[in-house]
Amino acid sequence: MFKLGFKKLYPDAIIPSRSTKFSSGLDLCAHNVLKSVSIKRHYNMNIYEVHDNSLRLLERNIHSLKLNINERALIGTGVSVCAFDEYFDVNRIYDIDMQIRPRSGLGIHFGVHVALGTIDSDYNGEIGVIVFNFGAEHFTIIKDQKIAQLIATPLLCPNSIIELNELPETQRGTLGFGHTDNKTDL
User: Which of 132, 152, 167, 170 has its CA 20 to 30 A from that of 143?
Assistant: First the structure.
C-alpha cells in the first residue's frame, strides 16, 4: 500500500482531502494564478490570437479570478505531493499514477473543465490545474474553491521495452476511433 504526503507551499493553502468516505478523488482547491491565457477567434476564419494575460496577475495570492469565455488559466493549488511506501521511507519514491481530473459539477453547470493532467512520482513542485472556460458566460474562480480532483493509483511500469517487427493478430486489428459503433461482430 502507499501513502500520499502533501506539503503546504503557502501557510493558507488547503491540503487535498476526500469529500466523502467513498470519494475516488481528493479535492484540489484554487490558491493562486500561475498563468492566464485568452484565445480570440477571428470571425469566419481559422485564425486565432493568443493573449498571455499573466502580467495582469502579478499578485500570486488571489481572492478571485474572472475566467472569460474561451480563456484558460493555470491555477496553482499551493501544495506539492509525494507518494511513500507504508513505512514512510522518504528516500524511496513510490511509483504512483496521480491524475488531475475535472469536477463534474463545474462542467455541467458552468461549462468549466480542466485538462486531464499527470503528476509524475518524481515531481515535487506545486500542483497546477489547467482550467478552461467553454461556457456561455465568464466564470469566477474563488480562492479555496474546489476546482479539480486528484486520483492516485498504483502504477505498473514495464521493466523493459522492446521493438517488434509485428504485433500479434487480434479480431479488432487496426480498427479504431468509433469503429465499434457500427460493428456487431465484436
Answer: 152
